[in-house]
Amino acid sequence: MSNKFEEVKDKILLSDYIRGAYSYKVSGKRLRFNKCPFCDGGDCADIFKKGKHEQFDCKQCGKKGSIIDFYGYENNIDAQTNEGKSQIVNELCNKFGIDNNTNSQEAKQKPSTELLQAQIKSIKQHEDKIKKYDFTDVVDRLHKQLLESPEGMKYFLDRGLSEDTIKRFKLGYEPKGMNEAFKDYPELQNKKIGDSHEKAECYQYFIPTFNDKGECTYILSRRNDILANQKIEEGKINYKVDDFRKLKTKNLTGVPTTIYNFDEVMKNDLIFICEGWCDTLSLENEGYKSVALNSVTGVDKFIDMIQEVEDYQSKTYVIALDNDKSGKEARQKLQDKLQKLKCRVKHLYPEGEGVKDINDMLLNDEKNLLYSIVKIEQEIQEENEKILTQNSCYSHLNSILNKFISNRNKKLLSTGYSKLDKALGGGLYNSLYVVGGISGLGKTSVVLNIVENLAKEEQDVLFISLEMSREELVAKSLSRFVRETVDKRLTPMDYPSQRDIQNGNFDIEAPYFQEGLINYAEASKRIFIKEANFNYNTELIREDIIKHKALRGKAPVVVVDYLQVLPCLKDYGDDKKNIDFNITELKRISREFDTPVIVISSIGRQYYKKPIDFEAFKSSGNIEFTADVVIGLQYSFMADIGNKSDNEIQTMYQEAKARYPREIQTVILKNRNGSIGEYTNFKYEPKYNYFKEV
């Protein structure tokens, strides 16, 4: 059943299942229900991609999970029990024509469905066909009526807004209410407007929202509270008093909502975030750029929208939400999300007796409001100056000079190969090294030889193996050490190979083996092999280095074998993006701990019979730009193939592969510490994992 369970999640997209059954909208990389299917709450339930599958999550009722869980909630089936899960899987298989035979080879061979991004694209194409409103004419009419109405102007002026602000944001007024305001849009009548003309008439004030083209795409309506209370007392509105009093503003059904004043404000470096339109206009009235979430439920929408802005992380966000319980909760949520995105966050708190929001603060104590804002600006300026000072060369000059002086007698780490050291600019620097080559050239063996040479010079090495066991690696090393110390009277066939050692086919009492064992045992004290599983990532590498440094007093040289199988801390669902992330993090680790990091990398198969170059690494991620040194391995004949034909190269390749020992060379493709294009030639005996410089 577990296989069928996973197959259903692979083959049935939640976004496909809900299409046509529920109303929703696209919000960034998410789908958002207009109303939660389970609690009927507005703007609180999302569908998003998590890992391989789509998930839903309602912030209000707490219901969440996969397509299995959604179907269970919908049909009152307990998806947490095996019986319930089995029932759901069977019903979904029947609905979507999936073979419910868990042994069906045909089912196993079916490709997985498209992921969320493709679905969003399709949904956006569908939504393009939906009528997009342009209320510009309506705004012009309502704004003109406002300027001509002392009663209408009084409402906004009493909120502390200047006539200039009223004109700049083209606020509007219609004494006959919403139905009259939208008389040219009959499809909008009596929806969110209300179930009665009396009720709709109460919404007389209008706050338009403009896009970056200056078009009005949305209008928020504000109730005339005096008129509403009058109609309630007169019994003209057959509606619960408490419920009606909560509906101070109204949105239009079928018209996409947005964050108020978003497009204009995001052009600035300092952005104030308010809860309601009046708070936003209060700050705009004082000369500060502000947006309105329109409600506390607008936090997620705002976070989605800012990520579409190229330089959103360079801005400072000042949270100025209301001082009530919901406002405080939304403030914390917004702060957490912004900080997670690595944005700078400040707070403007509504202060004063009886002050609930920024508009109250403007009306009660404008000077205190301005003082609080100026204080925030000063904090930002001080932080910016501190950052500039921290990054200035002058502030670091003494420490840099001291480091230069301490490096005077510092010896670079030797690879154990003099010609390779020379090609690298003297040895190993505290940099990121990437070693790549085709299969059969001994990538792991040559790096392991270098590790052993480092250990001989009393340098600790942390070898992170994602492919081979500790036993395999030790057998490799032992075969090499025995090969180096073996009695010259013996023929190569008498040396115990890696496989011989693993299988126990060697004479442990033989003098040559004892000598090799003693030498390896001494080196092995400084070689630390981490058998990493497929949950091991760069953050765990960092933790292991910290532990090692705490115990040994110095960070080890780090080796990763190999890059393409190193799990990504943040799974992007794309191999190249995952590798890009990992190679960047490994570079940071090298800098953070001031130690060499050596990464083994595979390359494309097309380079099996052609000279290695940077192109070989491009499919493997951002290696070319991130690594300090890139070393390619190839058969030595590759340096001299010239204009030889494919058939000639094929013959040379087969001969080189069959030759023993193999003739291998390293090629320096990138080197921040020295020259590039340098070759170092080796004899490689794969049977004994033995590299010898020639």
Give a description of the structure.
This protein is of the alpha/beta class and 694 residues long. It folds into four domains: 2-127, DNA Primase, Chain A, CATH 3.90.580.10; 133-257, DNA primase DNAg catalytic core, N-terminal domain; 258-388, Dna Topoisomerase Vi A Subunit, Chain: A, domain 2; 418-471 and 535-693, Rossmann fold (3-Layer(aba) Sandwich). A hairpin with a 5-residue loop joins strand 7 (203-210) and strand 8 (216-223). The longest helix is centred in the middle third of the chain and has 26 residues, at 366-391. 36% of the residues are buried.
Q: What distinguishing features does this structure have?
A:
single chain; 694 residues; alpha/beta; DNA Primase, Chain A; DNA primase DNAg catalytic core, N-terminal domain; Dna Topoisomerase Vi A Subunit, Chain: A, domain 2; nine-stranded mixed beta sheet; five-stranded antiparallel beta sheet; 30 helices; 22 strands
Topology summary:
Elements: H1 2-11, H2 14-18, E1 24-27, E2 30-33, E3 45-50, E4 53-58, E5 64-65, H3 67-75, H4 82-96, H5 105-109, H6 116-127, H7 136-147, H8 150-158, H9 163-168, E6 172-173, H10 178-181, H11 197-201, E7 203-210, E8 216-223, H12 225-233, H13 241-246, E9 249-250, H14 262-265, E10 270-274, H15 277-285, E11 290-292, H16 299-306, E12 316-320, H17 325-340, E13 344-347, H18 358-364, H19 366-391, H20 393-406, H21 418-423, E14 432-436, H22 443-456, E15 461-465, H23 470-485, H24 498-503, H25 511-524, E16 527-531, H26 538-552, E17 557-561, H27 575-593, E18 597-601, H28 615-618, H29 623-626, E19 629-635, H30 646-658, E20 662-671, E21 679-685, E22 690-693
Helix pairs in contact: 15-18, 18-19, 22-23, 22-25, 23-25
